[in-house]
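anyone seen this seq b4? input:
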Amino acid sequence: MKSMNLATRWADLLHIPKACVAVIYGGTSAEREISLMSGQQVLEHLLAAGVNAFGLDLGVDGQDQVAQLQQAHMDVAFIIVHGRGGEDGTLQGVLEFMGVPYTGCDVLSSSLGMNKLMTKLVWLAQGVKTPPYEVLNDSSNWAEVAKRLGLPLVVKPVHEGSSLGINIVDSAAALERAYRDAARYDREVMAEFFIDGDEYSVPIVNDLALPAIRLETDNSFYDLQAKYYSDETRYMFGNSMTDAEQRAMHDECRYAFQVLGCRDWGRIDVMRDKDGNNWLLEVNTSPGMTGHSLVPMAAEAAGLDFGQLTVVLLNLALAR
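predicted toks r here
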């Protein structure tokens, strides 16, 4: 993978299209701020590449989002809305109805990917290794949940991204507190067994697994601050895995991406335990595209710069 040059391999996807492109960002989810950062980066790089593009801040100042889309004169949409309303199939469905091609996953795979519980159910049915879990609610017996799954546990909202509402707990009492915190973000909350090991992220672009990135942070885990704001987070392409082990991780992630019906691009988050087992945590179907984001970082390592990546994703949408 290190010797791969994607700019050469995907030369046919690097032509500048004549289409008018709406870079759709913002939205009204809890991830709005991150989406604004991503959208600005994508728009600037598309314009610098010579693409006829404009930005569309969806839902800004309480505007009717469907009306905004209907009034926008676009040939294709570059979706970079994160979270609910943009990453869950809703925006994709409206664009389908309008007959406008768009980047990234379709309605079904977007909806599945946004729902961590449904992602797990599909993965488990297809033999993908993912940590044991349990859905929580107000009547959960916290001690019994901790006993069944074991400690420590990761508590997370089912429908949120960017690590919002996620906590790692090591007691039943802390489990209840974490549930209350996660429930502020979502009506559905789950707990899963915490995998002790190295944290990786594997971007997928055009059905190809890009170089796996090992994440190191001094925070308790790769949280919102570590993802988007900290200059102390360490992104490591070097790791202790053999070539065969890296290929196996890539193959597992590509398979997990495919069984959800995902397309074009995304990112799979993985924990690798002390025994060398890969545990897949979740898929991100509209990953960040900020200066700290992992997909452009991995693409760069494979010979494709940020601007070229945006053009490739755009041409993949137009090819449909």
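The chain is about 35% helix and 20% strand. Residues 226-230 have pLDDT under 50 and may be disordered. kinda curious what u guys think
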